[in-house]
Structures are given as structure tokens and as C-alpha cells.
Specification:
Blueprint (H helix, E strand, L loop, with lengths): L6 E7 L6 H11 L17 H6 L7 E7 L5 E8 L7 H9 L3 E7 L6 H12 L3 E7 L8 H12 L7 E2 L8 H11 L12 E10 L3 E10 L1 E3 L3 E4 L5 E3 L2 E6 L1 E4 L2 E3 L3 E5 L13 E4 L18 E7 L5 H14 L4 E7 L3 E8 L2 H13 L5 E3 L6 E5 L3 E5 L11 E16 L3 H10 L3 E7 L4 E9 H6 L1 H8 L5 E12 L1 E8 L2 E2 L5 E4 L3 H15 L7 E7 L2 E8 L15 H21 L6 H9 L4
Parallel strand pairs: 1-3, 1-4, 4-5, 5-6
Antiparallel strand pairs: 2-3, 7-8, 7-16, 8-15, 9-14, 10-11, 10-16, 12-13, 12-15, 17-19, 17-20, 18-19, 21-22, 21-23, 23-25, 23-26, 24-25, 27-28, 27-29, 27-30, 30-31
Helix pairs in contact: 12-14
């Protein structure tokens, strides 16, 4: 184990696509932790989805040995962080386990929304921040402009900002030296009672849960009994070690170290990110600050396309839960879609990742219902309940009021697109609280807006309006009153529960019209007319009709009196009416997918 003055714990923070994973690749390659034959890009990203999308979903850690210019052997612990706003709590825990941060800024794009929010997060935890300008080899790189932005927007000294190209490997040696020189060593006491922070964990099918920790005080070793302070559960350490891409067993860890323990823990949900680990026999007096329960903000129901696959889906969900503690689910059922699960997600990206993993890793064909947020509803008699599923919404007459979650959204955009972005935010019921010109060309807009409005197509439209230049970041700010309504979709007079949605009352008409139009295009014609209606309570607000298939009963009438034709048409009409009374409309799977996939385009 290295002495604490020879340890450096750091993370890399950046906006999406600014080259965080590529820089981590170069540091690992330089330290020769993996030979060139076995090396692959984004080596810290394990999932195919991460590689394809170029994002980090699950944070990783790696211990890099480095011999500095003064011939001293240093241990550099890099804690890689997820780059997406959905995983901001994991980012905060990873940052809390470091003493310093490399703040990475793209030389072609400059400071963006998540660069700012991640920097404030690092400052809250008193980290030493080292500005690094990446992609200096690109033709569009404008280093002087980015240096100005770092000084003006971030308030950091850009004179000493390190210039690197993670792709070409330029400036990596200087970066290593800067990590050793500028980032302080950990200040922990190995003789104090054990106090360690859990910043992540993953599931190993053969060994159980592997817990990722940073030790602040004390020591831990094989055979020692430990306790998790949030739920007071006690385990015995089977093995401990450090991350060098593979798990390397050392048998013990000391204050300042970043490493892992395996202690026979069966499921990931027993381990909570941000929890404090201490000795069961000699506990520390206080837990590390900042721990909170991760709560889902987006809810959706999952059903198998073929209802016979329910058991397979249940087994797949259990396996996914082993790997992802933030996935929350319970059993659910629908008259239209059969048995399924009601799930809670950290955000829309989290929902998409779960959907892709179910389809790829477990070969499941699934339908997700329209995503919803958790509303606070007051019922007559003063009772308050939280509702995320339209099926649970009480009768209109019993509802006294409703509140919905709001976010504080921060958008940084070139000023050319300002008008269009403000129009989009207003359309999404946003209220502007701040507007700052960061320089001659860029503006920061801050809006209070409902989370439910961001769920559908906000991000895609923001990117298309700004040609990809605007960046977006948000955090949940609390609940505010809203006009809520339950929109029911009726087929042939019968409500289809899986298509019900909770919507803002003023936008209910538009939503109902779009759903009815899509269903009209998807439902096959029957022998009778099928009315498709959108309703709030007993009031119909939108309607489309699927016309009946008709036989030409007038074909045998050539010439003759009009009354003969009318008699035949009336007879056909009566038959259609009787058929409609007994006829049942089967909603095809493609109709569900059409309504739910293209939610609001």
C-alpha cells in the first residue's frame, strides 16, 4: 500500500462528448495497464450501448501507477464519472471520493451547460480543479476563445490550462505531472476507526456484489467485520483489492486508497451509493455527509409483446435489478396488454438504456407505455397522495387540486438561436428566471418548467433548433400547482387502460387528437364503423372514425325505383348496427407501438 502523500485521487468532469473517455484511454495506455493488442477504445465502458452512443452510463475506477520526473512512484486513482444529467447523484458521489478534478473543455465547442454544473459540484466538495483544453488538433479548435471562456464563465486561471489532444496523445506527459503537482494528496489517518464511502458497485455472477469504495480513515483487511451505516447490516470481508482494469487482490486497503471489497452480498439493492462503511467492532462516530436515497422521477409500464413471455420478462427484470440498483419496479396489469411491470427510472436516458438492455441482453420484445412523472394529488377530505399511474387517478369530482414536479433548466446557446429556443421553452410552459450573456456570442438561459414537458421531445427539438450547438442541464426544484386531467382513449365506447395518460388540461385536446389520428391509421377496418374517442371524464374532446368495410348491395339494382335501393341500404345499415353491438375491436400491437413510440412528434 502506498503512503498517503504518494496517492492522488482524481476524476475527469466534462460535458457530454468533450472527450472524457478518450482521455481516460490515453492515461491507461500510457501507464501500460493493457498491452496494445488487447486495447480497445472506451476501455472503461463495458456495455455495448455505452460504446455506440459514446456516453458513460456506469462509472468506473482504475488505479494507474506513475513514476514522476523526480523518480517517485505515485498511485493515481482515476474515478470515471457518468456524463449524463440522469446520473447526477452518482457523479456527486464519485466527485466526493476525490481530492482533485480535471475539468475537460472541448477546444471546438467551449464551455457548455454540464461543464458549469459539474464544476459547481466539484467546488461544493472543495476539489482542486485543473482546467484541461482537449481536441487542440482539430481544425475548428479555437484555444484563445476557450481560454477566455474558462476565465470569464468559470472564474479559473486559464493561463496555466493544459493543452491536450486525447485522440493523438498530445500533452499526456504534462498532464500526468500536473496531476501529481497540483492535486493534493489524501489526508486520512490509517489508525482511526474505518470510514469509507461507497461510490459505486457492480454484480459478479460468481462472487456476488463488488463494492467500490474510497477510504477516508482507518484500514480494512480480509476477514474483518464491517457495517453499512444506512441500514446497519453487517458483513465479513472475503477479499479486498484495487482496480487495474481487472480486479487485483491486495487483501487490504488503507486511508486514501480507492478499491473494492467482496463480502458475500447477494443483491446490488443491499448496497447504496453514498453510504458509509465502518468497522462493526470499532465504528466511526459519524457517517460521511451527502448520502440520500435515489428516487425515480420518470415512470412507465413494461409489457411483453406476447403475453406468454411474462415469466421470461420477470426473470430478465430480476437479473437487470442485480446490476442496476436504481431500477424500481412492481407488478402491474392491464386489460389490453395483460401482465407487466410498473417501473421507475432516473430519467429518460435511463428508460432508454433499460429498454435496449432488455431487448439486446435478454432478447425480450417489450412495449413501454407513455412515460409519466409522479404527481401530488389532493382528494376531498384533505388527503394527499402521490400518483404516477393514470389508472390510479381518482374521479374528477373528488380531486381538489394537483401539483407536478418542476425543474430548473439551464440552456447555453449561441445567440443566433435565442429567439427560437425561448419560443420552445414558452411552448413547454417554461418561466424564464435568468438570462446571462456569457460573451458576445453565447447566452445562458435559466427556466423553471414542468418535468413532464421535458419528457417527450424537448431535448430533440432543442438540438434541431440550435443545429446541435445548444446544451441543456437540469435539476429537480420541487412541486408546483397544476391543472391536471386524465385523458382516456375509447375504442367503440370502451376505454383502453394502457393508453390513458395524465396531461396538463390545456394541452389535453392536442394530445387526444394526435393519439386518435395515429390509431385511425393503425387499426384495421372491420365490418362496422369504429369510433376512436379521446375523453376527459364523460366529455369527449377528440374523435376519429375507422370506416366500415361494405359490400356493394346495390350491384344487383339496375335502374328501377329509388325506394328499392333505399330498402337494401337500410337493411345493410341495420345489420351493421347489430354487428357493432356484439363486435369487439382488437387493438393490434402495432397500434400501441405507433402511439407510444412516436409520442409527441
Amino acid at each position: 500500500m502506498a503512503q498517503t502523500q504518494h496517492i492522488r485521487n482524481f476524476c475527469i468532469i466534462a460535458h457530454i462528448d468533450h472527450g472524457k473517455s478518450t482521455l481516460a484511454d490515453r492515461l491507461i495506455q500510457k501507464a501500460k495497464l493493457v498491452d496494445d493488442r488487447n486495447f480497445k477504445d472506451q476501455i472503461l465502458d463495458n456495455m455495448d450501448i455505452e460504446r455506440e452512443r459514446g456516453i458513460t452510463i456506469k462509472s468506473q475506477a482504475v488505479t494507474i501507477p506513475y513514476t514522476a520526473a523526480d523518480d517517485i512512484e505515485y498511485t493515481l486513482n482515476l474515478v470515471d464519472t457518468p456524463g449524463h444529467v440522469d446520473f447526477s447523484y452518482e457523479v456527486s458521489r464519485a466527485i466526493n471520493s476525490c481530492e482533485g478534478a480535471l475539468l475537460l473543455v472541448d477546444a471546438t465547442q467551449g464551455v457548455q451547460a454540464q461543464t458549469l454544473s459539474n464544476m459547481y459540484l466539484a467546488l461544493e466538495h472543495n476539489l482542486e480543479i485543473v482546467p484541461v483544453i482537449n481536441k487542440i488538433d482539430m481544425q475548428a479548435a479555437d484555444v484563445p476563445r476557450v481560454k477566455k471562456q474558462i476565465e470569464k464563465d468559470l472564474g479559473l486561471d486559464a493561463e496555466n490550462a493544459l493543452l491536450v489532444s486525447a485522440r493523438q496523445g498530445i500533452g499526456i506527459d504534462e498532464l500526468f505531472e500536473a496531476i501529481v503537482q497540483k492535486i493534493p494528496h489524501p489526508s486520512g489517518d490509517p489508525s482511526s476507526p474505518l470510514r469509507a464511502l461507497i461510490f459505486d458497485c457492480h454484480y459478479d455472477p460468481y462472487r456476488g456484489v463488488v463494492v467500490h469504495l474510497r477510504l477516508f480513515d482507518g484500514q480494512l483487511k480480509k476477514g474483518m467485520k464491517i457495517s453499512f451505516m444506512s441500514n446497519e447490516s453487517v458483513y465479513e470481508i472475503e477479499t479486498a483489492g484495487v482496480f487495474k482494469l481487472a480486479l487485483v487482490e491486495t487483501g487490504a486497503l488503507s486511508a486514501g486508497d480507492v478499491g473494492y471489497i467482496i463480502a458475500g452480498i447477494k443483491t446490488v439493492s443491499d448496497v447504496r451509493v453514498g453510504d458509509t462503511v465502518t468497522g462493526a467492532d470499532n465504528p466511526c462516530c459519524a457517517a460521511l455527509p451527502g448520502f440520500r436515497e435515489v428516487k425515480p422521477v420518470v415512470f412507465s409500464s413494461i409489457y411483453p409483446v406476447d403475453s406468454n413471455d411474462y415469466e421470461e420478462l420477470r426473470a430478465s427484470m430480476e437479473k437487470l435489478k442485480l446490476n442496476d440498483a436504481s431500477l424500481v419496479y412492481e407488478k402491474d396489469s392491464s386489460a389490453a396488454l395483460g401482465f407487466g411491470f410498473r417501473c421507475g427510472f432516473l430519467g429518460l436516458l435511463h428508460l432508454e438504456v433499460i429498454q435496449e438492455r432488455l431487448e439486446r441482453e435478454f432478447d425480450q420484445s417489450v412495449i413501454f407505455t407513455a412515460p409519466s412523472v409522479r404527481y401530488k394529488v389532493s382528494v376531498r377530505g384533505g388527503e394527499e397522495t402521490f400518483i404516477d399511474n393514470p389508472i390510479d387517478y381518482p374521479d374528477e369530482g373528488r380531486v381538489e387540486g394537483a401539483q407536478e414536479p418542476y425543474i430548473r433548466a439551464s440552456v447555453i446557446t449561441p445567440s443566433d438561436y435565442l429567439g427560437n429556443i425561448m419560443t420552445l421553452c414558452l411552448e413547454k410552459r417554461g418561466v424564464q428566471t435568468n438570462m446571462t450573456y456569457l460573451d458576445e456570442k453565447r447566452v445562458e438561459l435559466v427556466y423553471e418548467m414542468p418535468l413532464s414537458e421535458v419528457l417527450f421531445d424537448f431535448y430533440d427539438r432543442l438540438k434541431s433548433i440550435s443545429r446541435g450547438y445548444a446544451s441543456f442541464d437540469y435539476d429537480i426544484s420541487g412541486y408546483k400547482p397544476t391543472e391536471l386531467a386524465k385523458l382516456d382513449i375509447l375504442l367503440n365506447g370502451k376505454a383502453v387502460d394502457a393508453l390513458s395518460q395524465l396531461v396538463f388540461r390545456d394541452s389535453a385536446y392536442d394530445r387526444a387528437r394526435k393519439v386518435c389520428e395515429r390509431l385511425r391509421d393503425e387499426i384495421p377496418r372491420q365490418q362496422f364503423k369504429i369510433p376512436i374517442q379521446g375523453a376527459i371524464g364523460s366529455q369527449i374532446i377528440a374523435r376519429e372514425t375507422v370506416n366500415a368495410l361494405r359490400k356493394d348491395v346495390l350491384a344487383k339494382c339496375y335502374g328501377g325505383d329509388i325506394t328499392r335501393k333505399r330498402k337494401l341500404l337500410e337493411k345493410q345499415k341495420e345489420g351493421k348496427k347489430r354487428m357493432k353491438m356484439v363486435g369487439d375491436v382488437e387493438l393490434p400491437q402495432s397500434a400501441f407501438l405507433a402511439v407510444l413510440k412516436s409520442r409527441d412528434e
